[in-house]
């Protein structure tokens, strides 16, 4: 009877190990599928970010000179005028 119990216990452990390995394999497959799609998403986000930075940099270089000229002309062209709200008190 003791021998039969040992044999049953060993068979149960073998079945449990087999089931555990099967479930772990399924889990790894699902994890790979999910992480694979995340990898694709991160690559797309990285590509979009690079494109946005490239566009901003080119826009900066294209408009910098004209904006500096406008800014300097606004600062350097001094036209002294009396403010419209100024009231001369006598």
TrEMBL record:
GO biological process, one term: synaptic vesicle lumen acidification
Keyword terms: Hydrogen ion transport, Ion transport, Transport
Gene Ontology cellular component annotations, sorted alphabetically: synaptic vesicle membrane; vacuolar proton-transporting V-type ATPase, V1 domain
Matches recorded under Pfam families: V-ATPase_G (PF03179)
Keyword Cytoplasm: no
InterPro entries with a match to the protein in the record: V-ATPase_G
Gene3D superfamilies, per database record: 1.20.5.2950
Entry keyword annotation includes Membrane: no
GO MF annotations in UniProt: ATP hydrolysis activity; proton-transporting ATPase activity, rotational mechanism
Record-stated family: Belongs to the V-ATPase G subunit family.
Task performed by this protein: Subunit of the V1 complex of vacuolar(H+)-ATPase (V-ATPase), a multisubunit enzyme composed of a peripheral complex (V1) that hydrolyzes ATP and a membrane integral complex (V0) that translocates protons. V-ATPase is responsible for acidifying and maintaining the pH of intracellular compartments and in some cell types, is targeted to the plasma membrane, where it is responsible for acidifying the extracellular environment.
Quaternary structure (record): V-ATPase is a heteromultimeric enzyme made up of two complexes: the ATP-hydrolytic V1 complex and the proton translocation V0 complex.
Name of protein: V-type proton ATPase subunit G
Organism listed in the record: Syrrhaptes paradoxus
Lineage, uppermost ranks: Eukaryota, Metazoa, Chordata, Craniata, Vertebrata
